Amino acid sequence: MKKLILAIALVATTLTFAQDRKARGEKLTPEQQTELQVKRMTLELDLDEKQQKEIKTILVEQSKKRETKIAEMKAKKEKGEKPTADERFAMKNEMLDNQIAMKAKMKRILKPEQFAKWEEKQADRKEDKKERIEKKVEKRSTK
């Protein structure tokens, strides 16, 4: 009897966790993500209408590039191909070039005080990302 109750409890908890993962798996479309990002930036940087439109076009373009890159990487991963050192170098180089271009575009669109605030936010996000990665690595090493 105890084993039966234990088995039922185990199955019930497993099903509950499986359902939670599916609910979190639904992602926003790139357009929805872009819209939210523009609104967040509008609140943080006090953007005017013209700035919002220009930034939205930049973010949509960036989003499309990112989606194609992700699709390429997934296709390669499914084939079992790993990028060579030269390919990794090229990807990182391209990523840095994109960041430089984005920074130049934002500098052109934003006012000096807005640009300074945007750079500060970017630095904060970068720092947060580093901390999350360090926590993941630390968590894996303790297992």
Description:
- This protein is 89% helix and 0% strand.
- The protein is mainly alpha-helical and 143 residues long.
- α2 packs across α3 and α3 runs antiparallel to α4 (85-109).
- It is extended and about 70 Å long.
- The two termini are 34 Å apart.
Summarize it.
The protein has 143 residues and is an all-alpha fold. The protein is built from five helices and no strands. 5% of the residues are buried.
Number of helices: 5
Rg calculated over all Cα atoms: 21 Å
Name the helicity range.
over 70%
Overall mean confidence score, pLDDT:
84
- Structural class by SSE content: mainly alpha
End-to-end distance: 34 Å
- The number of strands is 0
- Biggest β-sheet description: none
Q: Estimate the strand proportion.
A: under 5%
Fold topology:
Blueprint lengths: L1 H24 L4 H16 L3 H31 L5 H25 L2 H31 L1
Helix pairs in contact: 2-3, 3-4
Question: What key attributes describe this structure?
Answer:
0% strand, 143 residues, mainly alpha, 5 helices
